[in-house]
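Protocol step 4 of 6: record predicted structures for both targets in the notebook before any analysis. Target 1:
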Amino acid sequence: MLRPGGRPLPPDLLVGLGAADDAAVYRITPDIAIVETLDFFPPVVDDPWTWGAVAAANAMSDVYAMGGEVLFALAIAGFPREMSKAIIAEVFRGGSEKMAEAGGVVAGGHTVVDPEPKYGLCVTGRVHPDRILIKGGLRAGDAVFLSKPLGTGVITTAAKAGAADADVIAGAVASMLRLNRVASEVACATAARGATDITGFGFLGHAGEMVTASGAGLEIRAGRLPLLPGTRALAEAGQWSGGMKRNRRHVDAVFGERLRIDPAVPGFLAALLTESETSGGLLFSVAPGRAQDVRDGFSRRGEECWEVGRVIPEPAIRVLP
């Protein structure tokens, strides 16, 4: 991560280099702050439109994790010189149409020649300066919710190896394409105090960032964690991405004995907690008295959510069956 190099940060940079979070936030007026984030990656699926749309949803997720509203984006991409222009056009179309679904627009961008194709967005959003969701908002006693099932990492890894059924891949694609807009709206409406999105560092990696930033811990009930159909079988078959072990080493290095996974938690599930996810859900906390409001808010909007644990005073992570 880049550091500010000892220089004082401008007071209007509300979230930036001084603390690790999902996006930068810069105050423009007393009522408006700009949310800025950037994300891009190589193809996670074969279909070019779907890759572009998933990459866009994934990039926008950081704005939603800050409680923001998506405004517009600039595309950032690299493609091999020999790649078909028709394929490239489909990638851009997927990203643009997913942005339109969010109420935003792709307003421009930049492309370079790259032997490994990559695509993503630099997304601009807005949020009220007093209503920003941050990773450091956990408070002891809060109820913790997750807005999407886990499993995109093992499923897309298996798909690349030809080891995943079409219906399993379709389920993962549908999840990756779903925006976190509803989750963000519900989190804000129920006065959520801490939030992040689950992506490349896996569930424990991103949960650990919340613990570090908050000085409070998480007690997670592994049995309550939602899984995409087919995830367990593929995980038990060892269809892990290259990031899973790296993520686990990082979490172990940061937390040491403060990370405790109950031996009764199945081995595949313990490993899945550090598997990389693409366009995963929001993980957020609310005061315990607002937990039913969260469930009702998701239900009214036709989406699911799962209460997966609680916030504890000790800055540790406990994973129970």
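Target 2:
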Amino acid sequence: MGFFEKIKTGLAKTRNNISGQLHGMLDSFTGANEDFFDELEETLIMADLGAELAVSTVDTLRERVKKKGIRGPEIRQELEEILSEVLDFEDKSIKTDTKPSIILVTGVNGVGKTTTIGKLASRYVSEGKKVLLCAGDTFRAAAAEQLSIWAERSGADIVRHEEGSDPGAVVFDGISAAKARGSDVIICDTAGRLHNKANLMNELGKISRIIDRELPGACRENLLVIDAATGQNGLIQAKQFGEAAKITGIVLTKLDGTARGGIVFAVAKELGIPVKLIGVGEKTDDLLDFNAAEFVKALLE
């Protein structure tokens, strides 16, 4: 199955919910009509774009329709272009050019963080890279065990300590092991939640300082995993984690399980952070590099 078809299949619920309403509206469009724009705005808000982005999207579309004299189904292409522009960041790839490179993965418990790490490990191992997983989420019961299963399944190495250990010490040992073993990529799991935000920020700040000290000049990604089904709550999570660590990219999981995919646009617009990966299924290869144009096309087709 090709990239576009995989996204289309994974976004079935989202597409059926949004496009079921949009298809009739767009296909029957005969010219500028305020009732049409009001209905479109409401539909986009219901799709989790958020009120501000939905309003600005419709305002831009209204201007272009009047300026270009659009009448007919070509309005769909115009809407695709506007939505694609929201998601179009210059830096969308995950940087792994140094040896080792390091990927710090954050996110609240239950969003699919460990699964995302396992899928990433499988991807890099299949590309011939030597991968080391670092079980830095020492506060959640069985987190290290789950990561160990993924390490065995993917063929990656793993460094772990006892439950409740200092996450910074785990990351330090992981970096030391990666240097000794000649690893290409280090992927670090981190605590999804501590008992207060100050502790979370302190913990992530400590880990960041260790990485800066031990791997100066290394390619580094701070990826935040968000469950697409959480809707606007995903924005709150992103803002909180963004205060604790400089997030370089978003991973949106479980897009195949939600009927609202607009959170992709809300995160990109409101936070100015690129979506770099999306999860559209349970299989290892269902973690896809994000492509804005293909995503919007699959969503609206």
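Step 5 preliminary note on target 2. The mean pLDDT is 83. Residues 51-68 form the longest helix (18 residues).
Proceed to step 6 after PI sign-off.
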